Amino acid sequence: MFSKILIANRGEIACRVIKTARRLGIKTVAVYSDADSGARHVAMADEAVHIGPPAARESYLLGDRIIEAARRTGAQAIHPGYGFLSENAGFAEACGAAGVVFIGPPPAAIRAMGSKSEAKKIMEKAEVPLVPGYHGDDQSPDLLAKEADRIGFPVLIKASAGGGGKGMRVVESAAKFADALAGAKREAKAAFADDHVLVEKYLTRPRHIEIQVFADAASCLYLFERDCSIQRRHQKVIEEAPAPGMDPARRQAMGEAAVAAAKAIGYRGAGTVEFIADQDGTFFFMEMNTRLQVEHPVTEAITGQDLVEWQFVVAAGGRMPLAQDQLRIDGHAVEVRLYAEDPARNFLPSTGTLVHLKLPEDGPHVRVDTGVRQGDTVTPYYDPMIAKVIVHDRDRASALRRMAVLMGETEVVGVTTNAGLLKALCGHPAFVGGEIDTGFIERHRTTLFAAVAPADDLAFAIATLARVVEWREAGRDAARASDDPWSPWNEQSSFRLLDEGHDEVRWKDGERDVAVVIRRLRGDGLRLELPGGAQDAAVRRADDGRLAMRLGDETFAATVVRRVAGDGGIDYTLFADGRSRRLRLVEPLDVTQYEATASDETAVRAPLPGKIIDLKVKAGDTVTKGQPLLVLEAMKMEHTLAAPFDATIKSVRYAVGEQVSEGAELVEFEAGG
Ligand code: ADP
Ligand code: ADP
Ligand code: MG
Fold it and tell me: What's 181's domain CATH number?
């Protein structure tokens, strides 16, 4: 076994690999970019080597520099994690040449599966079922169109070199094929410097079911399946094991097909064979990922195995600890990916400092894999995943119930997250009832998104009561500091001398301005005049720091985090009953806030740093609300920015290909709309 390894990655996966290494007494070396000098994975490792500036291509993708770091620190092996260099055959080869063990499959196996088209050819020979389609070398548009006709619409065009959902286009009819093909090729060229595509039958309401395979020098086995059908933008959000409704015969058939796939390429180590399955259970090979997968913890939970330990053992030349007939499925596991992204804005990634972070805690049923701590920053340079939360329980219903509760207790301030959506998903009757396919989120959008934020009056009441507590506490501090701690003049605001004093707090909720009047009743009682009517209320700070509130007949606890935003405004983020919402305080004396809103409406700004990849408008054009203006590529994804209202374009500030910083004015409108 190795005594020291280097981890060529960052974030949660680096931390996760370090954890197993430490348990096995293996020393660890982390690598880090300028953006990560204070990151959790650096703090966890025994040693750390700086490898370059923040951009991945100048740091985490520099194979030579990483291998050099391994040699300098005496690491005998490199674990690549996932993403970055994990599926880079050239890097695996270079490790070998430098006498450092690459903890992954042989370079030839990576290469064989690197192209989706080549992979399909190999699978065809191994008699693994394929999605009906065309994956040949002839790329002439006419031939591809003819093949699409033969396959039958709808079809899916995929970049052969693709990954992360890029270069993928669904085509509904022959008339739309040529345009979609051009688009897919353009995207593939830009992302992978390779515009080779394949065409396949687009399955409607399919499930994504994948098989975890493992191989050592002597044998190859499968560790059952994972269902990863809950996706957005063709990317996974929730994964579970085993797959609901899977019967033993089909499990065995899929497992054996996956093992056949791995054997066909002389596989070694951990790999995943992804299948797409019809609602009737027919399954087809989709692609093979020649690395550890993000969602491997659900497999670890139901099998009781540590796959990273297996990776170490096999890479060091040892045998897998168990044989196929020794593996069992125990209970059910669910993983959710907690992302810094805004589901309401088409899952736009969100960057910022995690000023407040309350994640679930590890326990007998719960595992949290994360690469960040409170105070860390989610930067635009890397994947915006904050944490993976994994629940293991006796059955699916129990696991989902537990997960919904955990997501309700998760609190993140500083970036927008999908926690509310994850909670809504885990509690959604259709999902709990077994309706599972890749279109689930889109189809249930309305009900899922409605469940995320507290109702208006509740939100305004919580924020206002938090403000009351601030006044009281500020008053108490002032009193402590003054000569006469009991002087009534130290009381703030309307909580002065009048028994029937009142005050007003104003909140900005998106475009809306809402005033809440607070009247003081006898004792500690308050009366809030909310948009939906007046309600009696009370509030105090509980021992755990949260706010204990009463509104009407309801009592509940809320967390409210106050924070000065980047633009100087004061935001209150509320968490109550598993829901979250952000409101902005309108300070009565601060007129700039009104001006800021007014000027906001004359331009569209970059919501995060990125590159302009498509412009759909020019100066002089008139646009209607919701009309796409341009496409911004940021954090490995494309984001379409739309007109916020009907307007005439005054100017377009950037050209296609230009890099823009966060907040940059991209499109300016004529005053007056
Ligand atoms: P999975 O099927 O395991 O979700 P993906 O292919 O979606 O695998 O990607 C796995 C992970 O690898 C992503 O979540 C992301 O963190 C990382 N990743 C993917 N592409 C890149 C890239 N180009 N650079 C850095 N990391 C990447
Ligand atoms: P990536 O390299 O981005 O992971 P995949 O080929 O694995 O690309 O596909 C990603 C996702 O796209 C799948 O999980 C599935 O949701 C969807 N998808 C892929 N192929 C098909 C298909 N033939 N029909 C319907 N959906 C598909
Ligand atoms: Mg895939």
Answer: 3.30.1490.20
Element holding 273 (H helix, E strand): strand 269-277
3-state SS track over 85-136:
CCCCHHHHHHHHHCCCEECCCCHHHHHHHHCHHHHHHHHHHCCCCECCEECC
Same domain, 360 and 270: yes
What pLDDT is stored for residue 500 in this prediction?
55
Does residue 581 carry a catalytic annotation? no
Give residue-wise pLDDT tens across range 50-70. Answer: 999 999 999 999 999 999 999
649 is in which domain, residue-wise?
596-669
Q: Terminal CA-to-CA distance of the chain, rounded, Å?
A: 68
Distance CA 159, CA 281 (A): 26
Domain match, 477 and 558 both: yes
Residue 118 lies in a domain: no
**How far, rounded to the nearest angstrom, does the alpha carbon of residue 73 sit from its chain's CA centroid?**
33
Phi-psi region of 404 (alpha: psi -120 to 50; beta: other; left: phi over 0): alpha
Same domain, 99 and 151: no
Residues 6+ apart with CB under 8 A from 138: none
- The response to whether residue 572 sits with its C-beta less than 6 Å from ligand 1 reads no
Nearest to 331 by CA among 367, 304, 361: 304
The catalytic residue among 10, 207, 291, 402 is 291
Do residues 460 and 540 share a domain? Answer: yes
pTM (predicted TM-score): 0.84
Q: 131 in ligand 2 pocket by Cβ < 6 Å?
A: yes
Alpha-carbon distance 315 to 104, whole Å? 7
- Is 87 within a domain? yes
Does residue 569 share a domain with residue 479? Answer: yes
Q: Judge contact between 418 and 339, C-beta under 8 A.
A: yes
Pocket test for ligand 1, best of 273, 383, 386 (most atoms within 8 A of CB): 383
Considering 390-404, 474-488, 494-508, the range whose residues carry the highest mean pLDDT is 390-404
Residue nearest to atom 11 of ligand 2 (CA): 234
Question: Using a 6 Å cutoff on CB, does residue 164 contact ligand 1?
Answer: yes
CATH of the domain at 608: 2.40.50.100
Q: Whose CA is nearest to atom 14 of ligand 2?
A: 208
Regarding whether 376 and 277 lie in a shared domain, the answer is: yes
Q: How many domains does the chain have?
A: 5
Residue 518 is assigned to a structural domain of this protein: yes
Residue with tokens 């989120």: 441
Question: What number does the ligand 1 atom closest to the CA of 163 have?
Answer: 6
**CATH code, 559:** 3.30.700
Residues 586 and 606 in one domain: no
- pLDDT (tens digit, 9 = 90+) per residue, 385-408? 999 999 999 999 999 999 999 999
